[in-house]
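Notebook entry, structure prediction.
Reason for the run: the old model in the group folder had no record of what sequence produced it. Starting over properly, with the input documented here first.
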Amino acid sequence: MASLRELADLTGGKVVGNPKLEINGVSEIQSGRSGTITFLSNPKYKKYVNNTAASAIITADKSVLTHFDGVLVDNPQLAFANVLDFFQDKPKIVWGIHQSATISDNTNISENVSIGPNCVIEDGVRIKENTVIGANTVLGRNVVVGTNCTLHSNIHVYHSCTIGNSCIIFSGTVIGSDGFGYVELDGIHHKTPQTGSVIIGDNVDIGANCSIDRGTIGDTFIGSGSKLDNLVHIAHNVKTGKGCLFAACVGIAGSVEIGDYCIFAGQSGVVPHVKIGDRAIFAARSGATKSLPGGKVYAGMPAREIREQNKKDAVLHEIDILKKRISKIENDA
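New structure, fully documented this time:
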């Protein structure tokens, strides 16, 4: 429970209406509940304002609060994220090491950590303060996990990988498995040893069932502040800049270099050994087949600037119409 004033202080916003209004949770604007607070950011949802049962609204549009209590902010989505975190029913962390965990004697584990049931912590592992390791997670030899991290259950981090501070990794993810490297001779694919590692920066979130391969020679790098959705694959020796976003089912092939703050929408990808400039954006299902400069939006396969791709799609659509007209003329002849 919190007053509207307290929520305004939490979000750095301005109260409109009753500052003493008690709020007991959050709800969606289209299915608002009395006693809760909702938010309006996307104009498409403004049609729900007059009928919502929510008791207050977080918004940047002052006109929305003409007949409502609420909090006026510059960034409603960010403010609502803070409010969601405030009301979130977080699971209680049990600090300490579960008795069923298997831990090598040759480790450096800070006192204030949580290691869950059936974890395996191998030789040389370092786990720093305020980090949580979920059940059944395996940390291979010489793995380093920074401070304030949360590794959920059933994660495997292979030997010699490094995870920075304040990272969140979800179940099913594998970090540091071998890259896909083979040499063919006389019909036999001979495996290339993968001798590098994976280095993950600070404040990186990695979704469920992702795979990040270790480098062949040298390391795979994930830049600080980057966020990976579920089912993302990062191949060996990839280097990403800071603040990159990878949506579900993105695949980045080996030895790709990606600049800062790039965005890859769902099922997009990049072929091996190319460079992508800072702040490049790739639409869903696009594929970069060559090095591309930053600061542009790309679409299609092969990926080209989105305006060029849209023109190509329009021409193909017109050709399809012409084919149908020609077929009709031929059938009528």
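Summary: The domain at 103-255 is CATH 2.160.10.10 (UDP N-Acetylglucosamine Acyltransferase; domain 1).
The old model has been moved to the deprecated folder.
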